[in-house]
């Protein structure tokens, strides 16, 4: 009898996954660029979400194997694969959240803007399909240069007559993840407690961590502010150089993107307490797109947390002014690209 009861317990445990994943909701998520360095681990992390019922994996190649592999995990969501332009539309039908990590990554010596010529066209093509097939979905743009690809996406959605600025998000979560990690390390804080808002954009000096707004409240010397700010701004390059030609951040990016997906799904599911930083259409500054802390609700961006830009230190004020010309130029480059094509 004891053996039977132990066996029953083991079977029950095996039927569950290794984390508690009882289905809790039934959202559909599509990942475009799902066979890539970010796409694969991101798909795995989304596969682990109890809020997801269907995971649609799209890429131009190699996605069948990724989907077959993932589909064996005993978590609730069904995994479907879609390959090539002819299957793009179907990958998007009925989807609640579309995540876009499609495109080429940097190699050492390149800026994110050096990716523009290839990635701008990829994002434009994918967003056209999103507009045609799931215009109400939350759209998460990861493909670089984010400072330009988000304005491109906005213009394409406008041209298609379906633009809702509340549902278009540039993913800057990795900047927050890095800022939290580096600040916790430097100040010997418990990681779980640390939250640093990061505003501006997602490239070099346009990434502005507001260290004075760190929670829990913590004081930094001028040297610490300079060192941490520069490290956070160059963290992407730190990974590109360490990978020495094999690409840019993929695992930490997948982790950050999965956090942003989970936050979006919680917001869609009615959680009224969801805050993230994201690069969105914004009136917080004179720039039409700007990353800041936002509250996400069922319909997308519910509020922009404007208080983060009040009471900045002199260092932060100066850095904010310094980033504006570069961010403005990247936005205008994206808008010009999208409009030139029509
Ligand atoms: P990768 O080359 O490993 O993967 C990219 C994938 O996109 C590949 O599987 C490729 O087949 C696919 N792809 C190419 N063209 C496509 C198209 N038209 N439709 C669908 N899929 C297409 O690159 P990666 O390391 O995964 O990086 C992807 C992008 O994410 C890069 O632009 C990179 O700069 C960016 N990125 C952004 C952040 C961020 O914080 N926002 C962080 C890291 C990387
Ligand atoms: C990052 O911040 O890691 C990404 O934007 C990729 C890159 O090119 O640095």
Automatic annotation (TrEMBL):
Included stretch of the parent chain: 70 to 411 of 414
Name of the featured protein: malate dehydrogenase
Keyword Protein transport: no
Source taxon at top rank: Eukaryota
Record flagged with keyword Phosphoprotein: no
Keywords: NAD, Oxidoreductase, Tricarboxylic acid cycle
Native source organism of the sequence: Liquidambar formosana
Subunit (UniProt): Homodimer.
Family statement: Belongs to the LDH/MDH superfamily. MDH type 1 family.
GO cellular component: mitochondrion
Enzyme Commission number: 1.1.1.37
